[in-house]
Structure formats: C-alpha cells, structure tokens
Write a structure and sequence with these properties.
Number of helices: 7
Largest sheet: 4 strands, mixed
Shape: elongated
Strand content: 15-25%
Strand order of the largest sheet: 1-3-2-4
Order of helices and strands: HEEHEHEHHHH
Radius of gyration: 17 Å
Mean pLDDT: 89
C-alpha cells in the first residue's frame, strides 16, 4: 500500500494544495507564516504544481515535509509568527537529506525489498518490475530506479 503522505503531513499540521505557480519550473513550495494563513487558512502549507502527475506530487509533498521536519519541527522556530520561511523546490534540484527522507517514507526498505522480490518472480523483466513498483508505491518510476540502484550497488 502507498504511504498516506498527505495524511502524515496533516498530522504535523501541514496541509498540501495543488496550485499553478507563477514560474513553471517550480515543482513545490513550503510556506510557513507570513501571509500563508491569509491565503490558505493556516500557517504551514506545501503547494505542488498542478501540472505534475499524482506520483510526482506525492514525492514533492514528502520532500517538502522533510524540509519542515529537519529544519523546524524540533526547533519550534516556526511558532514565531513573525518568522517567515519559504522553501522552493525546482525541477532537477537535489538535496541528499530531503530526497533520502522522501524515499524512505514513500518506499520503506523492508516493504520495498518484499515487493521487489514479488515483482522479480512475477515479471522477470526489469521495466515491468519498475512499472509495477511505481504503481504499488505511487511514486515516479525514476524514484523506483534510484531505490533499486541503491540496493544493488
């Protein structure tokens, strides 16, 4: 089953929205404080580009949740309403810690290995295995490829 990333974000009081950004290279953003409450009705939101497919947007939500958790949750810095924070995720941008978090939460290692082995037995074809895992975890195929490479190299 796919990780319910939107529900997980909500448990941290971070709500996600699909929007059409001013810059088409923006894939997602995390907004904390400032005018966020006026625009969205709460202080912490993740917005994703509505041109993207569901699987890629799930990845972006997980990645932006990592930005929040790794930078703010324990520090409580976001509770000062005067402190404004914006993190913008652009196409082809990479941050090892945030990507690792997103990969781990969306495709937990034990579950991934189990499903990978099921796919190997069922398909005997790399591309079919990748497509199957992508659908199972509801993540982009390139993320599945990256996960397989991590495990086999």
């Amino acid at each position: 089953m796919a990780t319910p990333i939107v529900k997980i974000a909500k448990t941290f009081e971070v709500t996600s929205y699909r929007v059409e950004p001013n810059n088409n290279n923006i894939e997602g953003q995390l907004f904390i404080n400032g005018t966020t409450k006026d625009l969205y009705g709460q202080d912490k939101v993740i917005v994703v580009n509505k041109k993207n497919d569901l699987y890629f947007n799930r990845f972006i939500i997980a990645r932006q949740l990592a930005v929040f958790l790794l930078n703010f949750k324990e520090k409580n810095g976001y509770k000062d309403k005067k402190s404004v924070f914006i993190d913008t995720y652009y196409s082809k941008q990479y941050c090892k810690d945030y990507e690792r978090f997103a990969t781990e939460i969306l495709m937990p290692i034990r579950m991934f290995i189990k499903q990978y082995n099921v796919g190997v037995e069922k398909f005997h074809n790399h591309m079919l295995i990748v497509m199957d895992l992508s659908r199972y975890f509801e993540v982009p195929e390139y993320l599945v490829e990256r996960r397989i490479n991590e495990l086999t190299n």
